Amino acid sequence: MERDVVISEHAAASASPASSSSSFAETRVICRVCQKQFAQYTCPRCNSRYCSLPCYKGHSVQCTESFMRENVMDELKQMQPEDESKKKMLDILKRLHMEEEMESDGDESILSDELIQKVISGEEINLEDLSDDEIKRFRQALASGELSKMIEPWTPWWTKPVARSISLSPDGSQLIREVTAEDTAIPDPMTVQEPSINEIPEGPESPLPSLKQLTKTEPSPLLAVHLVDILYSYCFTLRLYNGDWRSDPLGASTVALSMSKVMGEDAKPETVPEALSACIEETCSPAYRHTGGFRFAIGLVDDIITLLSLGHNALLCALCDFRRLIQAGESMLKAAKVGKTEKAQSSLKLRGATRKLYFMTCWVHEQPNETWPSLARIVEVHKASLEELDSGSRKASRKSNPHSKVIIEEL
Fold first, then answer.
1. How far apart are CA 209 and CA 211, in angstroms?
2. pLDDT given at position 76
3. Choosing a second label site near 7 at 20 to 30 A (CA), which of 21, 41, 360, 391?
4. Sign (positive/negative) of CA torsion 174, 179, 185, 186?
5. Confidence of residue 193 (pLDDT cuts 50, 70, 90)
6. Does pLDDT of 111 surpass 90?
């Protein structure tokens, strides 16, 4: 309907030339989209000037059909049981369950009582103070995640009620707050405390530029998919470090790049299942299996859904926090004692990740609000599909190993 109206405007305008000096002056405005032809038309929604129907279609995602609305149904239709990504994920789950069965047959006791008491009491433990057997058990405990059970779990900021009421300026920057006497007072170095890691991270410190100021080419329509990869990496890193990435920025940034294929390997996944499958495969790998494997990965998918449901401002705060994490890691890398070649390669990756995060922040800022519920729905549907696959994989694993859980064995 709207498209027909625009075409009618086009035909009417081409049929009747401007009859007054004011209308003639308006035709002298350059088209905002192509910046090559004179603009003869004005968008009735945002008053943008354009020269032709193709330029009208591409002038603004807020006025034309957004990418996410057009592709939600197509994305859902692609999630078929025979999809290649599902086959790959099923193989990962089968392998993971087999390894879990093998690990469950191992020694039940990993840490000695004496070592557990030292950890609980907060005593400093050096490898030199331990026997060979204790060192072996201690490393097993680190790999299995047993020690993490002694740490009070962190509550992610995006799960708190205050996350629903984040306020930012229309240009994306932080709102100006009134300066109080406490802000101007000189802090006592002996009483200054570390900022709470449970607070909402700050948004952009300055107004965000438009995408046209950052690039001359049109943004990729796959950026919504890449955002899912980036959010997964952000949530994984924060949960792995129990919310306190500032304790080891370089280690946290290294973990983040290993988890995000978009930032770490310059991958360009084309669908949400493809992006999530790569992230979950990494989570279930030997390097990170101690975090909780598939069950932990599903929790991270829930984190993504929550962040997307919170909308525009929460996503900007998350991306800004992620960018600060990477920048802090880059700063620590300069003082790290590593080889020149390794340092140069790592620095190049971190700088590239920082630029991608900034571009993604600007892109998110320009998207219409309806983008995020649509994307959250796609992630939610794929999560249900993954849980169904996991259930089937567990059943298949039990059938292939019927004696794995024998309660009473005949002597």
1. 6
2. 47
3. 21
4. positive
5. very low
6. no
CA distances from 384 to 82, 298, 356 (A): 16, 10, 30
All structural domains of the chain, each given as residue ranges with its CATH number in brackets, are: 2-58 (3.30.60), 67-106+155-175+198-400 (no CATH), 111-145 (no CATH)
- pLDDT for residue 326 is more than 90: yes
213 pLDDT above the threshold of 60 = yes
**3-state secondary structure string across the chain:** CHHHHHHHHHHHHHHCCCCCHHHHHHCCCECCCCCCCECCEECCCCCCEECCHHHHHHCCCCCCCCHHHHHHHHHHHHCCCCCHHHHHHHHHHHHHHHHHHHHHCCCCCCCCHHHHHHHHHCCCCCHHHCCHHHHHHHHHHHHHCCHHHHCCCCCCHHHCHHHHHCCECCCCCECCCCCCHHHHCCCCCCCCCCCCCCCCCCCCCCCCCCHHHHCCCCCCCCHHHHHHHHHHHHHHHHHHCCCCHHHCHHHHHHHHHHHCHHHHCCCCCCCHHHHHHHHHHHHCCCCCHHHCHHHHHHHHHHHHHHHHHHCHHHHHHHHHHHHHHHHHHHHHHHHCCCCHHHHHHHHHHHHHHHHHHHHHHHHHHHCCCCHHHHHHHHHHHHHHHHHHHHHHHHHHHHHHCCCCCCCCCCC
pLDDT tens track for 6-42: 333 443 344 344 444 444 444 478 888 888 888 877 7
Joined tokens for residue 350: 């971190």
CA distance 261 to 274: 11
Mean predicted confidence (pLDDT) in 215-229: 91
Over residues 242-297, the pLDDT tens digits come to 898 988 999 999 999 999 999 999 999 999 989 998 999 899 888 887 788 888 99
In angstroms, the CA 319 to CA 65 distance is 25
